[in-house]
Each structure stands twice: as C-alpha cells, then as structure tokens.
Design a protein that fits this description.
Membrane topology: Multi-pass membrane protein
Oligomer: single chain
Low-confidence stretches: 39-56, 200-219
Subcellular location: Membrane
Pfam family, one: SBP_bac_3
Largest sheet: 5 strands, mixed
Radius of gyration: 20 Å
Shape: globular
Order of helices and strands: EHEEEEEHHHEHEEEHHHH
Organism: Leptotrombidium deliense
Protein name: Glutamate receptor ionotropic
Strand content: 15-25%
Number of strands: 10
CATH architecture: 3-Layer(aba) Sandwich
CATH topology: D-Maltodextrin-Binding Protein, domain 2
Distance between the termini: 61 Å
C-alpha cells in the first residue's frame, strides 16, 4: 500500500473523513474552461474590408449567465469535488447549475481529457467546470482554450496520507520551508508553461462591449 498520494487532489472535508492531508502546497479555485473563439469570422480569407467581416457575439459572458440560457451546456467530472461543490452549494446560481447538471448527466465527463475534447469540438456549445490551476496549464500550452471569468470558490492542493501517518509533521514542515524560500514558486514556473500570446481582443467579446468591438474591427 502507498503511504502518500501526490496529485491534483484538493483538500475537502469529505476526504478528510477517511484520509489526512498535509498543509496546502498550492491554491486553486473552480474555473470555467471554454473553447477560445475567433474574434472575427471572415467571409473571404483574402478580404480585408471590415464590412465583410462578421462579428461573433456569445451567449454568456460569465458563470452567472449559464442557468438563464439554453444555447451552451456545461458539465464537470462526474465523481469530482467540483461537481460536488455545485450539488451542495447554498448559493442560488451555483445550486441551479448543480441541479441542471444532475438533471442531464450526459454533461458529466469521466476525465479531463474527455472534457477537453468535448469543449474543443463543440464550437462553443459546451463548457466545463474544473480546477483553475488545470485551466491555467491547459491554456498555457494551447490557444484552443481559455478560462471565462474569475474563479469560483477557493481550495487548496495537499499531499494525501493515511490517518495518523507518522511523518505528517515532517512533511508539513518541509512544505512550509519550500514556501518560505521560494522553491514552490520556482517549481510552478518551471513546469507550468508561459501563457501563449493568443488573441488579445477576446475580453471585449465576452464583456459584450460593443464600442470596443467596433473600434477594434476598424484597426
């Protein structure tokens, strides 16, 4: 049997009932993974006349829009803590999101890999709730994806171990030392890719700022 589990495992009260966790070594939250859309759709790839360029607007600009529309479906990992958060939330919006996912279990994915493929191939019609640290990594290696809006909730990753593991104190002290001397930050910088230089106009699209859209279309 393994003594420790080191993965993208968030610390939750339900998990703490059966295992122990170390001090947090990284913080995250719940984010919304979406397919990065094109800013403009061109009628003719050789046409530079802005009057022949179609402006793309999207049905949601934040998580709070999701329960009030039917154009975009949304899901989460079926057995994950993110889905559990929405199912048990007392916030009205988040509770509605959880109810809709529960009522349509086809939106629940078995893995992040499956979710990425569904988001990528959905033409913007499927979005996915997952931990924002994973979104940061995914969007750092591919311009196909981005996060919509800010994080929901706040949680932390910890090293899982058996209850009353005899080296828990030493592990906790080691994590604190790595935080204080900057090693954890250096490790993240080493293994997380630098953000790709993708289209900078997307925020204007999602904010539905019509003036910005028009001005940018004339550049």
């Amino acid at each position: 049997d393994a003594d420790l589990a080191l993965a993208d495992l968030t610390i939750t009260s339900k998990r703490e009932e059966v295992i122990d966790f170390s001090y947090p070594y990284m913080t995250t939250g719940i984010g919304l993974l979406i397919k990065r859309p094109p800013y403009f759709q061109h009628g003719d790839s050789n046409d530079t006349d802005c009057k022949n360029r179609t402006m793309l607007l999207y049905p949601v600009s934040s998580v709070h829009d999701l329960p009030h529309q039917n154009e975009v479906t949304y899901g989460a990992v079926a057995s994950g803590s993110t889905y559990s958060f929405f199912k048990h939330s007392t916030d009205e919006t988040y509770s509605k999101i959880g109810d809709k996912m529960k009522a349509n279990e086809s939106v629940l994915c078995r893995s992040i890999s499956e979710a990425k493929e569904r988001v990528k191939n959905s033409n913007g019609k499927f979005v996915f709730f997952m931990e924002s640290a994973a979104i940061e990594y995914i969007s750092g290696i591919s311009c196909d994806f981005m996060q919509l809006g800010r994080n929901i909730d706040r949680k932390s990753y910890g090293i899982a171990m058996r209850k009353d593991f005899h080296m828990k104190t030493e592990i906790n002290m080691g994590i604190l030392a790595l935080q204080e001397n900057g090693v954890l930050g250096k490790l993240k910088k080493k293994w997380f890719p630098e953000p790709k230089q993708c289209d900078n106009h997307l925020d204007a699209v999602y904010a539905r700022n019509a003036l910005s859209l028009v001005l940018n279309s004339l550049k």
